[in-house]
Write a structure and sequence with these properties.
Blueprint: H1 4-8, H2 13-31, H3 35-91, H4 95-110, E1 114-121, E2 126-134, E3 143-145, H5 150-157, E4 161-163, E5 185-192, E6 195-203, H6 213-286, H7 295-325, E7 330-337, H8 338-348, H9 350-355, E8 359-364, E9 370-373, H10 375-391, E10 398-412, E11 422-435, H11 469-479, E12 483-489, E13 493-501, E14 506-509, E15 512-515, E16 521-524
Parallel strand pairs: 8-10
Antiparallel strand pairs: 1-2, 1-6, 2-3, 4-5, 5-6, 7-9, 7-16, 10-11, 11-13, 12-13, 14-15
Length: about 525
């Protein structure tokens, strides 16, 4: 194994010659010959030459090692700057911020006196200075012709360029009144998806060294990062503009919806006043308060009263819907006996069934069926469901209504406004209205409980209406914290059901959830989410 000295020192031919001559000189001196002195002189000369040659080789090796260390340090510094630039590029939200970060990184990376980033504009006829540092700091927005500039040459040839003397290069653009402040330049194209988007330029180094091919490779790497950053930033800007446009449209839609709701509320209120007068006077005439009526007059007045009542009901539905959408629905919560509400609704809809000779069966379990609710809204839901059942059931058909106590998972508001509502199992009353009518096709189930939507929307449909009845039922039930649904077999009949919590709606309040209770309360309608 070689010793440490042998690894550090490798003797050359002159060294071996000096050693050999030295031994010959020693032997000559031992013999007393003059050749010993001659060989000693040659040995000294060879040793001196070997010494200086070794010193020169050591200096060269130290210089080479120093250059390698400096090169490694430069590469590490470049990698660090590129990594930092990547992080800053990810933080850039606009192209202006991105371009500014790139030119700053280019100056630091190449220790340059100036840097510029130019993008293609005017369908490729010009390059616009979008960011600049140092010698380019005062040229923001300047346009350069793509056919008479160094950047235009890079754009046309789609490859980088090293310029040793800008002043004498015929490809350089020299605008009048603007002196050429740089001598050397390094340019690289910024490409994305096969298209050149622009050019990045760095000028003279502060250290005075010329640019090399390795510098051009480094600048091209920087340009490739810029292309990725441009694509990302443009996507962010497009997304931001889309969000802003969507917010603007949402605000406009909210404004239009508010105006529509206010219009419906005002018009409904204005229409109800004359309709009440028409219905009132019709009832007065039918009761004989203004004298006897002959048969034909009786029919006419009954038609006026019947259609007026129908129109008033539709207007009331529109008014209720507009109040709910505007968040102004007021409901009075009180202990409500579902048994009494069902019996009252059955009685109110008796005339509809008698006209079609339909039968009805009521099945309610024994015991209390009391919930905390608005009795008027509950009766309205029952009336709508019974009316629909009669409307879509043929003559001599059968309708059934049932009610019972149960426990069911119902939605409750979350603790925080931005969370989704949760589910909890609560005591509830389940009410169902069944019929043996036409039923609903599976593909039409999604049209139920939607405002102004009807299963049969054709002009020749048999059952007339606005499509608000079921939508109002859904909103009224959900305002009470309940849920509503339907099961149907087309051609066999349908069952519409709803569930109301016994203890009324649960609302989110400061400090947690609370349940509304009491003998009678007037509360604003909760937001349905």
């Amino acid at each position: 194994m070689k010793s440490g000295w042998a690894r550090l020192y490798h003797p050359g031919p002159l060294t071996w010659a000096a050693v050999l001559l030295g031994w010959v000189a020693v032997y000559g001196a031992y013999l007393g010959s003059i050749l010993g002195a001659v060989f000693a002189a040659f040995a000294m000369l060879a040793g001196t030459i070997a010494f200086f040659r070794g010193a020169e080789l050591g200096r060269q090796r130290r210089a080479s090692l120093k250059a390698a260390v400096e090169s490694a340090a430069a590469r590490n510094r470049a990698l660090t700057l590129m990594r930092e630039l990547g992080g800053r590029m990810l933080q850039a939200e606009t192209l202006e911020q991105l371009f500014d970060e790139v030119t700053r990184a280019a100056v630091d990376l190449f220790v340059a006196e100036g840097a510029s980033l130019q993008v293609v504009v005017e369908e490729g006829r010009f390059l616009k200075v979008m960011a600049g540092r140092g010698t380019f700091s005062g040229r923001m927005g300047m346009l350069l012709p793509s056919d008479r500039s160094l950047a235009g040459w890079v754009l046309a040839h789609e490859r980088g360029l090293i310029v040793e003397d800008i002043a004498t290069d015929p490809r350089a653009f020299r605008p009048e009144g603007i002196p050429v402040e740089a001598r050397r330049a390094l340019l690289a194209p910024i490409q994305s998806s096969g298209l050149v988007l622009g050019v990045i330029i760095v000028t003279d180094r502060n250290v005075g060294l010329p640019y090399s091919e390795s510098d051009l490779e480094m600048l091209q790497t920087l340009a490739d990062q810029v292309a990725v950053g441009v694509d990302r930033t443009r996507a962010l800007e497009d997304r931001r503009r889309a969000i802003e446009a969507l917010e603007t449209k949402n605000q406009e839609l909210l404004r239009v919806t508010r105006l529509k709701t206010e219009f419906l509320a005002n018009m409904s209120h204005e229409l109800r006043t004359p309709l009440n007068a028409i219905i009132g006077f019709s009832d007065l005439m039918l009761s004989g308060g203004v004298g006897p009526l002959n048969g034909q007059h009786q029919d006419f007045i009954e038609s006026i009263s019947r259609n007026g009542s129908h129109l008033l009901g539709l207007i009331n539905n529109v008014l209720d819907l507009s109040k709910i959408e505007a968040g102004r629905m007021i409901h009075a919560l009180a202990p409500t006996n579902i048994r009494d509400a069902v019996n009252a609704a059955v009685a109110d809809t008796a005339s509809l069934r008698s006209a079609k000779r339909q039968t009805v069966a009521v099945d309610m379990e024994e015991g209390p069926l009391t919930v905390l609710a608005d009795i008027q809204r509950v009766r309205q839901v029952l009336f709508n469901l019974l009316s629909n059942a009669s409307k879509f059931t043929p003559d001599e058909g059968h309708i059934a209504i049932s009610a019972l106590r149960t426990r069911a998972p119902l939605s409750v508001p979350s603790d925080r406004a931005d969370d989704r509502p949760g589910m909890t199992t609560r005591d509830a009353i389940w009410v169902a209205v069944s019929d043996d009518g036409v039923g609903v096709r599976p593909q039409d189930m999604s049209k139920l409980f939607v405002e102004f939507s009807q299963v049969d929307s054709s002009a020749s449909r048999r059952a007339q209406g606005t499509g608000l009845g079921l939508a109002l039922c859904r909103k009224f039930v959900e305002l009470h914290g309940g849920t509503i649904g339907c099961e149907s077999i087309f051609g066999k009949g349908s069952t519409f059901w709803f569930i109301l919590p016994v203890d009324g709606p649960v609302r989110r309040a400061e400090g947690g959830l609370r349940t509304i209770s009491g003998d009678r309360m007037v509360e604003p309608a909760p937001q349905i989410r």
